[in-house]
Amino acid sequence: MKEINIHLSPKDMPRQWYNLAADLPTPMLPPLGKDGKPITPEKLAPVFPMNLIDQEMSRERWIDIPEEVLDLLCHWRPVPLRRATGLEAYLKTPARIYYKDESISPAGSHKTNSAIPQAWYNKQFGIKRLVTETGAGQWGTALALACNMIGLECKVYMVRVSFDQKPMRKILMQIWGGHCVSSPSEYTHAGREILKKDPNTPGSLGIAISEAIEEAVSDPSGTTRYALGSVLNHVLLHQTIIGLEAKKQLEIAGEKGPDVVIGCAGGGSNFAGISFPFVADKIHGKKIEIIPVESASCPKMTRGEFAYDFGDTAEMTPLLPMNTLGHQFVPAPVHAGGLRYHGMAPLVSQAVVEGLLAPRACDQLNAYKSAMIWAKTEGMICAPETSHAIAATIDEAIKAREEGKEKVILFSYSGHGLLDLMGYDKYLTGQLEGYTLPDEELKASMEVLKKLPKAKIHKTGKW
Amino acid sequence: MKEINIHLSPKDMPRQWYNLAADLPTPMLPPLGKDGKPITPEKLAPVFPMNLIDQEMSRERWIDIPEEVLDLLCHWRPVPLRRATGLEAYLKTPARIYYKDESISPAGSHKTNSAIPQAWYNKQFGIKRLVTETGAGQWGTALALACNMIGLECKVYMVRVSFDQKPMRKILMQIWGGHCVSSPSEYTHAGREILKKDPNTPGSLGIAISEAIEEAVSDPSGTTRYALGSVLNHVLLHQTIIGLEAKKQLEIAGEKGPDVVIGCAGGGSNFAGISFPFVADKIHGKKIEIIPVESASCPKMTRGEFAYDFGDTAEMTPLLPMNTLGHQFVPAPVHAGGLRYHGMAPLVSQAVVEGLLAPRACDQLNAYKSAMIWAKTEGMICAPETSHAIAATIDEAIKAREEGKEKVILFSYSGHGLLDLMGYDKYLTGQLEGYTLPDEELKASMEVLKKLPKAKIHKTGKW
Questions:
Q1: CATH number of the domain that residue A69 is part of
Q2: What percentage of chain A reaches a pLDDT higher than 90?
Q3: Is the alpha carbon torsion for B100, B106, B111, B116 positive or negative?
């Protein structure tokens, strides 16, 4: 019988997260305040608990995963590594395609890998309530689940247009006891001001972040904090459990390791999760091609700039050194909501600048075409974000066939698409657009960066 | 670390299905034609391929699972047996609760366990096209997936009210290349007649079955057949892989076996799947309580009669000996669409009559209350049907606590509820009704049975 699923025993779960900041050839640039000076941990204290701020700043290579966090994660982890034999046969490729199935968490995506530890560390620090924002809803559902498991209150500001158009994710959050509200809202000063100006605004991730941070920092009891689902170092750290598990499972499958590693990349957390342990191998001399795949509608790695920029539209966050399209950028309404963020995580961005990664962009039509091939050959319905990774996987598998080369391709199956079937319906009925960002829009959006501090690093230029 | 997931290696997958017909204390009554005489295999030949008719009639205890079917099933099987530690802790029960997670197939339920072999046997027999009906859509999606994997065309008549209210399952079928149409339709004589009388009919499972059978038997090329997702012996046979896997996994977990086995029961396929291997143990002397849980809106086992009855409203099927509410019965519109069938599989029904099973009914409100407890304690969103099994599991776990008895409870987690979140929304907003069938409606519906042949068996009366 074919071995499709490669399981890892819970006792072989990774006991430490991997921190790429320890191995990056160039030291990371610090986040800056509006005054242009590096942010101190104290300045972040009203926003995040100190134990997570320590993780954010850490340059240690390995960071222990608390036993209680492992106990919580092992409700669904280790997740299987699977061999995509159906896709291989369809493509007649000599490549062996493996994917890490992150869709089997109850919230349906990899986001739980950081939601659980974030909720746990907050609880340890005496926090009683977490506030966050969510666009399409993947992160909001993951945090609602985590807070329910750990015993924290959870409030989620959901971008109004998604709140209205995607009621299913809101119901999921409510089932787990999360309080999901439409943003902009009457709960915050920022929300009220925006509603006063434009009562019919569709909202934006930038506005929702502003509302969530405002609510977190203005709780007089000091027991509320903010939680972010991507971009920051500690979030990417938590996600490395994906790649660390995959590494062990590839060994079990008898593979020497991947030749190609692929992940879709919005803020960077999923991509970092599958790839960072292999980026480390590449830094130490192993030959691996590592491909973050972004949406052509939001191409910060392939067409953006490495610069200091704000994480949100309202300029409430520190300045982060990252590949960005400018924090005022409004992406086209692609179904892959998780890829509609103007910036890329600093850790991923520095790896791009160093030449360790080979980013590429995929447009929405090509992504859905790949999702359909996947559904027909593997039977599974992938999330709109995940389809971008599948598109690159298909390209690489075809390349292997054309070159007549055996290859091991590994990608992260970051989530399922069962709550996003309308995009498939639009594809099937010919109503879907590709959306590639026009040059003039890109140029206009990048203008904002000219007023901000430059991000300069001395690259080794080795890769 | 807690051992939550008990995995079975693909090489330890069951190689044979278990046929309860071989072990039932009383021989099974045959299906009858309208003339009151037992149906011959030849009469079924235009409807089903002969290899499946042979299975339907077989009294062999063990039937080999073809290697190719195993290869297809092992894309997601063996599915994990999981320990519900969160629920146990919440209930403070000494019971150890295990569940077989059938929700992880791409179609989201146990239905694929029979869809795959049915499609495979049809293909072997030279059939090119399968036609079926679906109510809520679980079976239709499973068959569309199976036909896509095996290379058959698939047409699904979906009850109009579901077709309109549940577009997501229709999209799923379309992704896998299935042709899903609203029933009644213009494709069949039966459909046209009904539309002529009442263009606004919401449709019914009975009508959809009539249309599907009509289309199957009237293909002049003879390469179209009909497929049914429950009730029949061969369907229940295929599902026994659930219980056979669970048995091996309980051994791995160090358990001597279950004291209680629970499954929700609509037509009987899920319940048979988890329970029949344990019903065999009970027949051979082991003490096990085995509980099929039906909807209080459709209580054929707890309040219906064991009688010969038609499988469909239009009287196109043979007469089957089964627990039934009368084939004209129209159940209340509960969300658990899979439990809205007037009859129970003959194999399950005979086991009920023999006293081997202890059926109970659960109303919709209690079912959703249990689903919410499950979501809060285990994190997972169950299907509306599955919530009935969870309700009984909670009752049994509380009983164990009150009696101070250690117990092993096993139930089938038959499917996820990610495509049925509207029922949860109604529960959360207080809009859900319980629906218990009123006596007078039950009585009126059973009238139709008086005109049909009686089903008499000599029971051993041993249990």
A1: 3.40.50.1100
A2: 89
A3: negative
